[in-house]
Design a protein that fits this description.
The complex is a heterodimer of chains A (359) and B (388).
Chain A (H helix, E strand, L loop, with lengths): L12 H9 L3 H27 L8 H7 L6 H12 L7 H18 L7 H20 L15 H27 L4 H16 L2 H15 L8 H26 L3 H9 L4 H31 L11 H10 L7 H34 L1
Helix pairs in contact in A: 4-7, 4-13, 5-6, 5-7, 6-7, 7-8, 7-10, 7-13, 8-10, 9-10, 10-12, 11-12, 12-14, 13-14
Chain B lengths: L1 H6 L1 H33 L30 H35 L3 H15 L3 H13 L8 E3 L2 E4 L2 E4 L1 E2 L3 H23 L11 H22 L7 E2 L2 E3 L2 E3 L2 E3 L1 H27 L3 H9 L4 H31 L3 H4 L4 H12 L2 H30 L9
Antiparallel strand pairs in B: 1-2, 2-3, 3-8, 4-5, 6-7
Helix pairs in contact in B: 3-4, 3-8, 3-10, 3-12, 4-8, 5-8, 6-7, 8-10, 9-10, 10-13, 12-13
Classes of the chains: A mainly alpha (359), B alpha+beta (388).
Chain lengths: 359, 388
């Protein structure tokens, strides 16, 4: 028997456009308004950022201020202070290399090949150690540079990495304690987690930076930087613990019961059965939490650190570039955007990939 | 004897719990005692007596009258009210922005979708504090009062935004504000309540009448409460080097409100989009096939269902927004946290101030959560219904 296939006539290009954007009067109006907004913003933005912008430092701030568009010369003149803060000028290649280390480390840990507990710990451990040696120096013939001179993007990345490095294991501990069968352990841990979660991060950073020195014996106080990192890690772990716990709740109860029936010990059950499955469930939310943590590193500016935001304020705040604040903030926003956007896109990709696996 | 006791599961469990809770409590206690000792060395006595001493410093922004002679507890109250005020303004603005962008993202128009997605992608991925700094820099770099931008009776200057205010007594103004809110809320209630005879969806006249009545009330209140011998509206105007009249919205407040509205709006847009996505397509098709107009489908089917899906997530977002007001310290807006930080600087009552801070935020968060739980329960679908 012969099959008769009747394909609808392929719409022409104009017909297709009409259907997609001008199907009804309301649709047409909406399309036109959207188009007008887009064209207007795009034109203004391009004109400001490229066509009437000044890119070279040759004219100095005066020529720049006279121009109608953006003054990118401020970036050309001050990019070092934005990226590296007060780090010694001759040693800034180390700071740059340290930033690259962090980027490589993050990229590596995004690859599924590194998703075993041991490998990920190895990557982050070596990465953090490499970063620390590069930044601090004092060994291998590198000049010693104390933490107080760290700044800019390098400091932002350092705070992010150490926050995750301390916060993540802590989060798993908290999550395990919270689901403990012993009522008082789970209740107390729950209280700690909820208390930390109900406080704003700034207040925790402030407490750790300013108040904690009163409450600790002299030998335990340490550098302000590490106290603040500890506070930020605590905050991160309180949120991450709830994500991990959510992931654990998604693991069927039978899994653990089966492991118990096989005679596995507590740590075997946790390490081999529960955590691998829980982490898989919790992965999208975890990536999201990393994104949030990266954005929140910017808050340390309030307790007086010279991270990228503060160095940006300094880059335009002093001297002749006082008028060029928009350019500096746009530059910093772009840096944040590149990091955060690529991480969150990666998270979205993972989510799609995993939902394919479960179908 | 001891070994066999340790082998006993119940004894071991009790011991473990006592150890865990005990060591944590000991840690906190030790820290508190060291802190007390250190503070005592600096001549600071612990206790809450300082609450009744006068502060000796000024606040940058206050809705209530404030002077350096006021006691600390009054300043804490000012801080909480400032936080709640900024939070509420930011929350309302962010919800408006988020609803518009979220609706654009769920619309069937691809251009509007693109516009919404671009907005969310840009503003969600830039830290809030950077946006606060940016807007603060923009506002403080505006022209001086002499060369102010003008429009609609408002003045935009580096010292803040000056808006006209009615020359009306404080109580009358508050009463009028309540009447205006009623004018907005009344039609919504009239549209939903079952106490009216008319069927739902055919009450446009009643709704309009209710709203108009409330607005008329507001008008009467304003007319009665206005200050004698002055024009109804007080416009800001340049006098010499200064601006006189009108209401000044300081740059700190507007920068924070704008930043929270834009940043929070991008998050709320995603929540709105998620809520609308959660409404089953079949429900919309069923409503359309019943012959409801697209507007009715939206207001009677899509919106109520989407709202139910959104509300729990939205509540979390609002709690987050309230906490985001602590960014105020970055630009010098005297929110609750900044008052606490200044208290610690000036009085040295560290532990007490931190305790007050924690209690304050706990109270704010819990009451917000309670309000949303009530709303959630009130609008939840009742009776047996099939889901999925």
């Amino acid at each position: 028997m012969e099959m008769i296939v009747v394909a609808p006539p392929a719409p022409g290009r104009i017909e297709d456009l009409r259907r997609r954007f001008f199907a009804t009067p309301l649709q047409s109006l909406l399309s036109l308004i959207s188009l007008a907004i887009m064209v207007f913003i795009a034109w203004k933005l391009l004109n400001w950022a490229i066509f009437s912008a000044v890119f070279t430092t040759s004219g100095g701030p005066e020529a720049c201020q006279a121009a109608a568009g953006a003054c990118w010369s401020v970036i050309a003149a001050r990019w070092r202070i934005i990226l590296f803060g007060l780090y010694p000028f001759e040693e800034q290649w180390r700071s740059a290399l340290a930033c690259v280390t962090v980027v490589v480390m993050t990229t590596l840990s995004c690859m599924p090949a590194f998703w075993t507990g041991r490998r990920i710990a190895l990557v982050w451990g070596t990465g953090a150690a490499l970063y620390y040696v590069l930044m601090k120096g004092g060994v291998l013939g590198l000049l010693y540079v104390g933490e107080e001179a760290w700044g800019g993007l390098a400091l932002t990345l350092f705070i992010f990495v150490t926050t995750c490095l301390i916060g993540f294991p802590l989060a798993i501990c908290l999550a395990l304690l919270r689901r403990s069968e012993l009522p008082w352990i789970s209740r107390t841990t729950g209280l700690i987690i909820d208390a930390v979660r109900s406080l704003p991060l700034i207040s925790i950073l402030f407490t750790f930076a300013v108040v904690l020195p009163f409450a600790l014996p002299q030998w335990l106080q340490g550098d302000k930087l590490y106290r603040v990192i500890l506070g930020s890690a605590l905050f991160f772990s309180a949120y991450q613990a709830e994500i991990v716990r959510g992931g654990m709740q998604g693991v069927p109860k039978g899994q653990e019961e089966a492991a118990m029936a096989l005679g596995m010990s507590y740590w075997q059950r946790i390490g081999r059965i529960l955590l691998p499955q829980a982490m898989r469930n919790a992965l999208p939310a975890t990536i999201n939490q990393f994104v949030v943590a990266f954005k929140e590193t910017s808050l340390v500016v309030i307790v007086g650190f010279f991270e990228i935001l503060a160095s940006g304020n300094a880059a335009y705040g002093t001297g002749d570039w006082r008028f060029a604040y928009v350019e500096v903030y746009v530059f910093i926003a772009l840096i944040y955007f590149v990091f955060v956007f690529s991480l969150s896109r990666y998270g979205a990709f993972l989510e799609r990939r995993m939902s394919v696996g479960e179908r | 004897m001891l070994v066999s006791l340790l082998r006993n599961q119940r004894v071991r469990n009790t011991l473990l719990q006592v150890l865990y809770v005990g060591s944590l409590a000991a840690l906190v206690l030790a820290c508190a005692m060291i802190a007390r000792q250190n503070l005592a060395q600096q001549g600071i006595t612990s206790g809450f007596d300082f609450l009744f001493k006068s502060t000796g410093w000024d606040v940058s922004f206050s809705l209530l009258p404030a002077a350096p002679t006021d006691p600390y507890w009054w300043y804490f109250l000012i801080g909480v009210i400032n936080t709640l005020f900024l939070g509420t303004v930011g929350l309302i603005l962010a919800t408006i922005v988020g609803t518009i962008v979220g609706l654009a993202r769920t619309s069937s128009n691809e251009l509007a979708q693109l516009l919404g997605r671009t907005y969310v992608d840009i503003f969600r991925n830039i830290p809030l504090i950077l946006q606060v700094f940016f807007w603060y820099a923009v506002i403080t770099h505006l022209p001086t009062p002499r060369a102010a931008h003008q429009g609609f009776g408002m003045l935009l200057t580096s010292r803040g935004l000056y808006v006209p205010i009615p020359n009306v007594g404080g109580t009358a103004l508050a009463a009028a504000a309540i009447a205006v809110i009623a004018a907005i809320a009344l039609p919504v209630w009239l549209g939903r309540t079952s106490r009216l005879g008319q069927p739902i969806g055919e009450r446009f006249g009643i709704q309009l009448a209710g709203s108009a009545a409330a607005l008329a009330c507001a008008g009467v209140i304003l007319a009665v409460g206005r200050l004698p011998d002055l024009p109804l509206l007080d416009f800001p105007a340049l006098q010499g080097l200064n601006l006189k009249g009108g209401l000044r919205i300081p740059p700190e407040f507007s920068a924070l409100a704008v930043a929270i509205a834009i940043y929070g709006g991008s998050y709320i847009a995603e929540i709105v989009r998620g809520g609308f996505k959660a409404v089953g397509k079949g429900q919309m098709e069923a409503a359309l096939s019943l012959g409801l107009s697209p507007w009715r489908v939206f207001t009677l089917v899509r919106l109520p269902l989407a709202l139910r899906a959104m509300l729990p997530i939205l509540a979390n977002q609002y709690v987050w927004l309230m906490k985001a007001t602590t960014m105020g310290i970055a630009v010098g807006f005297s929110d609750f946290f900044m008052i606490v930080a200044l208290t610690i600087n000036h009085s040295g009552q560290t532990l007490e101030a931190i305790g007050i801070l924690m209690a304050g935020f706990l109270a704010i968060n819990l009451s917000l959560a309670a309000v949303f739980n009530r709303i959630n329960k009130a609008i939840a679908l009742k009776g047996n219904h099939l889901r999925e």
